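To assess whether ligand presence alters the predicted conformation, the chain was also submitted together with 1,3-dihydroxyacetonephosphate. Input:
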Amino acid sequence: MNARIEALKRQHNALILAHFYEDGAIQDVADHVGDSLFLAQMGEKTKNPVVLLAGVVFMAESVKILSPEKTVLVPDVNAGCSLVAHSPYEKYLAWRREHRDAICVTYVNSSAEVKSITDVCVTSSNAEKIIDAIPAGRRILFGPDRNLGRYLSKKLGREMILWPGACEVHILFSARKLFMLKSEHPQALILAHPECDETVLQFADVVGSTSRLLSEVEKNTSVREFIVATEPGIFHQMQKARPDATLIQAPVEGSCACNECPYMKLNTLAKIEHALETLKPEVRLKPQLMVQARTSLERMMAITRGDSVTWPKTFEL
Ligand code: 13P
Ligand code: SF4
């Protein structure tokens, strides 16, 4: 454990949350490591007045929106997400207005502004439960990740109007190379995040959120080789859980190391230390925006807990 970070954490009564895509050294200083849903739940539940979220900014914004009284820190404000960049508010609003009777389901990988015009958020670990809670007769708009939307639509048999966004990291995995790799490792199980293209997902034995993929490695002890089509930060926990397992990174087209999320990888231990020292950068959102964005996150949390919710009949804005 990093002694300076530990001392600063105690001084400010701070909680450190880290996503599975962070470097192993960052995961090791965190109080909790998890997927985007788990981090939002931990951030909301904690009594600590200061939360540092080592992940991407939309994850820290979710914590702030759900608990505006907390000081929420990020190591680097530039830790964005291509899905956020691909779903600007004005265009998303125009899309919503074209389909006023539909329920708008938005992946948490979105801006607070987009959440403010969303009926319900989802993460990749609760999306099926949330979509199943939408009355059968209602039309569904799903954004901003078209691959997750297409996967859910097929799996659940629900028609959806999809926003054309994608994760710049996950779309790089190559179905052609994955097919060849599998023939070299016929015993390996292929694990894929649903942000991958459908040509990659068709070869996957397990499709799921980062925590679902980790639990497969943890629990499926009859398998010793896994080909993993998601960001390689997850290997840290997978290898800890199964030191005996061989983990193989799914291949990308070309020879770059671009399966690493450049935004997640902006965070460093030095930046975490600096944020805890200065209590900056802090997530700051307008109070009115937080109120408007909270409804979609709270509806998601309620359905995830198993509570029933009501749905707006039409989009009024
Ligand atoms: P998870 O919710 O599965 O952790 O995914 C978040 C993400 O950004 C994947 O690229
Ligand atoms: Fe966004 Fe993709 Fe990075 Fe996840 S991996 S944070 S979806 S850019």
